[in-house]
């Protein structure tokens, strides 16, 4: 496993790859994974940093990266639904549950899986909000979640 660090408007991000795929993005404060090496020239990490810079500049809406998030089958299904939430839009935990063929009552399970997303921003867990439209938990903190949502809204508003 290798890693690098890139700057962003939400603070430094630790990017990790394993076997040629992005496996994690961590917000500050982060811990460098044990038994890993820094590799600022890793093609996957260089491309991830490039695409993140484009995203934060408002020039990228979708990421095109090999991903390998570690998680259960249910978590993988939730994370796939997160990627389907379009740029500049939000969905509630209950809406994600319904998209997975469950009832809205499964929103708590969706929330737990959402909170374990190891690749935030690229797998846009920041786009999931409470049923009443309020911001709810975010592993990177609610301030970062707000910055990400505002970035997407500001760029979308500027286009129309």
Tell me what the structure shows.
The chain is of the alpha/beta class and 160 residues long. It folds into two domains: 2-56, Double Stranded RNA Binding Domain (2-Layer Sandwich); 73-159, Arc Repressor Mutant, subunit A (Orthogonal Bundle), CATH 1.10.10.10. The protein is built from five helices and six strands; from the N terminus they run E-E-E-E-H-H-E-H-H-E-H. The chain has helices at residues 43-56, 73-84, 93-99, 107-115, 142-159, and strands at residues 2-6, 13-18, 21-27, 37-38, 91-92, 128-129. The strands form two sheets. Strands 3-2-1-4 form a four-stranded mixed sheet, covered by helices on one side. A hairpin with a 2-residue loop joins strand 2 (13-18) and strand 3. Helix 3 (93-99) packs across helix 4. The protein is globular, with a radius of gyration of 15 Å. The N and C termini lie far apart (42 Å). The mean pLDDT is 92.
Features:
two-stranded parallel ribbon; Double Stranded RNA Binding Domain; 38% helix; four-stranded mixed sheet; Arc Repressor Mutant, subunit A; alpha/beta
Quick gist of this model?
With 160 residues, the protein is an alpha/beta fold. The chain is built from five helices and six strands; from the N terminus they run E-E-E-E-H-H-E-H-H-E-H.
Mean pLDDT: 92
Strand sequence of the main sheet, in spatial order? 3-2-1-4
Rg estimate, integer Å = 15 Å
CATH homologous superfamily of the largest domain, by name? Answer: Winged helix-like DNA-binding domain superfamily/Winged helix DNA-binding domain
Judged by helices, strands and strand pairing, the structural class is alpha/beta
Q: Give the tally of β-strands.
A: 6
Based on Cα principal axes, name the global outline: globular
Helical coverage, percent range: 25-40%
Looking at the overall shape, the CATH architecture of the largest domain is Orthogonal Bundle
Q: Which CATH class of the largest domain?
A: Mainly Alpha
- Element pattern in H and E: EEEEHHEHHEH
What is the terminal separation in angstroms? 42 Å
Q: In percent, how much strand structure appears in the residues?
A: 15-25%
Tally the helices: what do you get? 5
When the domains are counted, the total is: 2
- Poorly predicted tracts of residues: none
- What profile does the largest beta sheet have? 4 strands, mixed
Question: What is the fold named in CATH at topology level of the largest domain?
Answer: Arc Repressor Mutant, subunit A
Assembly level: single chain
